[in-house]
Design a protein that fits this description.
Length: 393
């Protein structure tokens, strides 16, 4: 058996008790559980297309979710092996459209954060509300982290003449920035907690939320709501997903902060510092969680099972001269993924042939979304210890 370190097995399973009908000669079948099928084509040598379930309506919600995920995985595998000029042109056009949408989301979100911070700063100073001061501090850090995110996207697209200083690119700029900002935000949250406790024990209470303050926060919430909807549609992209999470948190925090400030002004004074304390604790938890998540990616957490399965499939069907897929690894270096694939070929294969097979597989893998770098190792046997030994110290 070939060894498998952090490797994947392709699991494409039918629902127990459901018969999968083969559709041929262009005919259709609308019975429950029917699947679309084609004979093994040039880019579908394992005939995975026969496993696509075309009609999901008879199934329960849980099973519809299962088959939808499986259909998407199969389609991703088939698309990755379709090398026709039309398919390549379509992929490039789609990438250009998605890239433009993500840039609009990034710059639009940064502009929204600038507007929000300006309105929050005015509102916090004029109202003297601890709850609004807490949300203003969060808006400041959102602005800084958003600027770092836009910068990370910019240096990725336009590396410039000094790219030799960073041979693998600077995609990890975002992760490092998030960890730094999270540390600062946790420290700021502690200061806000201290101020809230001081407000609770103070004998003077002069916070006052006016109609102008409410109008400012309402405008900020409206802008954030629009940007949340736009970024949520692009959540499969890391940059847009981070901004969507940021907008959602801002909507919750600002609505809660404004409510507590109003209650502190018109009901009981101590509601406002309590609101500031709750907001500070929420901010601390949110940013600490984000820092831990980014740290895991920077350390080198394993890629998703679906990506490992897809990479295994690509290596299996890439070239008939590949006898075995020895090892498939994929691990994060920030948001992106590094891939290592070990394949086995006949020991009598000429060097130029094995080189071309390995290089073409590498190029194919590096075209996949989220893959920054791929390394393909070619061997003539798989019954030996792993080539790489992690350092123990």
């Amino acid at each position: 058996m070939p060894r498998s370190v952090n490797s994947a097995r392709i699991d494409i399973l039918p629902e127990p008790g459901i018969r999968h009908n083969t559709v041929s000669n262009g005919s259709s079948n609308s019975s429950p559980g029917s699947v679309m099928s084609t004979a093994g084509s040039a880019h579908d040598p394992l005939n995975l297309n026969s496993k696509i379930v075309s009609d999901l309506s008879p199934f329960s919600r849980k099973m519809r979710s299962f088959y939808k995920s499986q259909n998407e995985f199969i389609q991703a595998c088939l698309d990755s092996m379709n090398h026709s000029e039309a398919a390549e042109a379509a992929r490039q056009a789609q990438h250009a459209r998605e890239d433009l949408k993500v840039r609009i989301a990034s710059y639009g979100s940064l502009a929204a954060n600038v507007v929000l911070f300006g309105l929050q700063l005015y509102t916090a100073i004029s109202s003297k509300s601890l709850s609004l001061f807490a949300t203003m501090a969060d808006s400041l850090m959102d602005l800084l982290s958003g600027a770092a995110l836009v910068y990370a996207g910019w240096v990725t697209r336009y590396r410039g003449d000094k790219s030799y200083k960073y041979p693998a690119g600077r995609r990890r700029t975002l992760g490092v920035g998030v960890v730094v900002f999270s540390t600062l935000m946790v420290g700021l949250s502690i200061e806000l907690i201290i101020e809230s406790v001081r407000g609770l024990t103070s004998k003077t209470h002069n916070q006052k939320v006016t109609a102008a303050n409410i109008a400012c926060i309402s405008v900020a919430l409206g802008v954030k709501l629009v940007m949340l909807g736009y970024c949520w549609m692009l959540k499969k992209h890391p940059e847009a997903r981070v901004f969507a999470t940021d907008h959602l948190n801002d909507l919750i925090l600002n609505a809660f902060g404004l409510t507590m400030a109003l209650l502190g002004t018109h009901v009981k004074w101590f509601i406002d510092p309590i609101g500031g304390l709750i907001v500070a604790l929420f901010i601390m938890r949110s940013w600490a969680s984000m820092a831990i998540s980014q740290a895991r990616l920077l350390i080198g957490a394993s890629a998703s099972t679906q990506l490992l399965n897809q990479l295994t499939y690509m290596a299996m069907v890439h070239d008939p001269r590949i006898q075995f897929v020895d090892t498939v690894r994929a691990y994060h270096v920030g948001e992106d993924v590094y891939v290592e694939i070990d394949i086995v070929m006949d020991e009598n294969t000429p060097l130029y042939e094995s080189h071309d097979v390995g290089e073409s597989l590498q190029i194919l893998v590096e075209k996949q979304p989220g893959v920054q770098r791929a390394h393909v190792h070619i061997d003539f046997d798989f019954q030996h210890p792993p080539e790489h030994h992690p350092k123990s110290q």
